Fold this protein.
Amino acid sequence: MSKMIFVNLPVSDLAASTVFYQSIGGEKNDMFSDETAACIVLSDTIHVMLLTHDKYKQFTPKPIADAHASSQVLLCLSAEDRGAVDTMVEAAAGAGGKAVPGEKQDLDFMYGRSFEDPDGHHWEVMHMDMEAASEAMAGEPQAA
């Protein structure tokens, strides 16, 4: 069985965050959702647990960071192609998130953009052509 990841995110408005993640392609799993949490399935192996602040505080005594003001983690999702990268970032911006300004990561073999969810959590969306990446890396000097 493949390992699964459950990304737990504190959110200020559970209903709005649930709609946001559904807008970028996630599916809500009602079996693991209630008035304090929503399980959003991004793939068979990637789940985002949206937790109210009170629920999140049950798992850690540390204060909840303001992701609009500081950064603790960058989350990255793969995409099927360049168009899927743009589609997800545009969907995020249209659903209450923010397309992160700045230059796109655009190499011959890799293309990526970023967005923030309504709570400021930073996501990258990346498409990589593995064959082109292998060819590009074959020409690079290898680290000792």
